[in-house]
Amino acid sequence: MKLKQRVVVLALLLVILVLTKLLLLDRLETSAAQRQDQLSFQRMMSGLRLTMDSRLEHTLQSPWEIASQWVVPREVYPEDTPEMGAVLHAMATKKIIRADVGYKGTQLKALLVLDGGQKVVFKPKRILGFRRAPLVVGRYVNLITEIKPVATEQLLSTFLKQGNNTCFYGKCYYCRETEPACADREVMEGSVTLWLPDVWPLQKHRHPWGRTYREGKLARWEYDESYCDAVKKTPPYDAGPRLLDIIDTAIFDYLIGNADRHHYESFQDDEGASMLILLDNAKSFGNPSMDERSILAPLYQCCIVRVSTWNRISHLKHGTLRSALLSATGHDPIYPVLSEAHLEALERRLQGIIGTVQQCIDQFGTDVVMVEDRMTLSHV
Questions:
Q1: Structural domain count, the chain
Q2: pLDDT per residue over 198-230, tens digit each?
Q3: Parent domain of 178
Q4: Is there a catalytic annotation at residue 260?
Q5: Does 303 reside within a domain?
Q6: Mind spelling out the 3-state secondary structure of the chain?
Q7: What's the pTM?
Q8: Is 326 annotated as a binding residue?
C-alpha cells in the first residue's frame, strides 16, 4: 500500500477511534445524568409519601411548636422532615375548642382554634399544598357536635337548615344567606390550613400582573408586550428574588387554574428577600376544560425561569405529575382530592408550561432564559 493511502487509512481509523470514545463518553455522561435525574425523582416521590401518624416520640414539643419553628424567610416548612405526618395528623384530628367567622375575603371560611391553641382556617372542599403555602390537610367536621358547641355568636347566627342538612354562610364579600355552604346532614368536607406564627407578620402587595376586574378596561400587561421591562425597573422586582417568585407563582397558578392572584403576601422585611407566600388559592380547580393562558403572562413576557423550577416540572412529564399528586394526597382524610378531569387538566397545562419555556429558549437561548437559583434579578 502506498504511503499516501496508508496515511489516509490511519487518519480515518484515528477519527473513528476518537468519535467512538466521544460517543462512549457521551453515553456514560448521559447515563450518569439519567441516573441523577432518576435519583432526584425518587427523592421527590419519597418526600411526597407521608404517613398520618400522631407519634412524636423523639421530642417533647407539641406539633404546633414544631411547625412554628419550620418557618424561615424562604419557606414555611422544610422539604423533608419526619414530623410532617404528625403535624398533618394533628390538623386533621385535634379537638376544636373555638370556632368563629373567617377573616374577610371572597371565599367562605371559618376560623377554628384547635386543642393547644393553634389557629387554622377551615374552607369547605378546598385543598392545596406548596412549600411557600401554609400546610393544608383535608378534614371532615361535624357542624353539630364539633362546631356549634364552641362557636361564637357571630358564627352561630349564620347557621341554618336546608332540608336535613346543616348549613352556614359565615362572613365574606360574597357570602349570603341564600347561598350557604351545607354539610351532608351534619358532616362537612373541607380543608384545614395552618395559621402562620404571629412572630412572622405579613405584608400585602399588589400583584404586578393583577387584573382590573372592570369590564372594558385592560391592565397594562394585557396590551403592552414590553411590560416586563417596566416591572424590572420597579422595586422590589429590580433586584432580589421577587420577580422569579412571581414567575414561579404564575406556573403554580396556571396548573391549578387560579386567575385571581390580584394581591400577594410576603413576610415583612427591609431587604425584599422574603418569599412570595401563597395564601389565597381558593379560586382554583374550577372548570377543568378551560386553560387560562394569560395566567402565564409573567413567564412568557419576561422569558426567565429558575433552573430548579424547570428541573422540577421537567421531572413531572409523561404522567409523573398525576402519580406525584396521587402519592402526595394519598394520606389525606378526604382522598381522592382531585377528580379525573382535573388530573387530566393538570397534565395538559404542564405541557403548556413546558412549551412556553421552550418558545422562550428558541427565541432568546438557554443561557438567557434559565436563571440559576443563587442568582437574583440584578444578574439577569
A1: 2
A2: 899 999 999 999 999 888 899 999 999 899 999
A3: 63-194
A4: yes
A5: yes
A6: CCHHHHHHHHHHHHHHHHHHHHHHHHHHHHHHHHHHHHHHHHHHHHHHCCCCCCCCCCCCCCHHHHHHHHCECCECCCCCCCCHHHHHHHHHHCCEEEEEECCCCCCCCEEEEECCCEEEEEEECCCCCCCCCCCEEEEEEEHHHHHHHHECHHHHCCEEEECCEEEECCCCCCCCCCCCEECECCEEEEEEEECCCCCCCEEEEECCCCCCCCCCCCCHHHCCCCHHHHHCCCCCCCCCCHHHHHHHHHHHHHHHCCCCCCEEEEECCCCCCCCEECCCCCCCCCCCCCCCHHHHHHHHHHCCEEHHHHHHHHHCCCCHHHHHHHHHHCCCCCCCCCCHHHHHHHHHHHHHHHHHHHHHHHHHCHHHHEECCCCCHHHC
A7: 0.81
A8: no
Cα–Cα distance, 60 to 57 (Å, whole number) = 8
- The pLDDT value recorded for residue 58 is 61
**Does residue 89 sit within a domain?**
yes
| Same domain as 254, residue 182 | no
95-136 pLDDT tens trace:
999 999 876 666 678 899 999 999 998 877 663 334 688 888
Selection from 41-50, 265-274, 370-379 with the highest mean pLDDT = 265-274
85, part of any domain: yes
Task: Note whether 225 and 352 are same-domain residues.
Answer: yes
Q: Is residue 19 part of a domain?
A: no
240 plus 184 within the same structural domain: no
User: Does 193 belong to an annotated binding site?
Assistant: yes
Q: Any binding-site annotation on 166? A: no
Same domain, 243 and 142: no
**Residue 195 assigned as binding residue:** yes
Could you tell me which residue, 55 or 154, shows the higher pLDDT? 154
Catalytic residue among 245, 248, 253, 260: 260
Mean pLDDT of the chain: 82
pLDDT confidence of residue 230: 97
In the block, residue with C-alpha cell 378534614: 139
Around Cβ 50, how many Cβ atoms within 10 Å? 19
123 is in an annotated binding site: yes
Confidence of residue 60 (pLDDT cuts 50, 70, 90): low
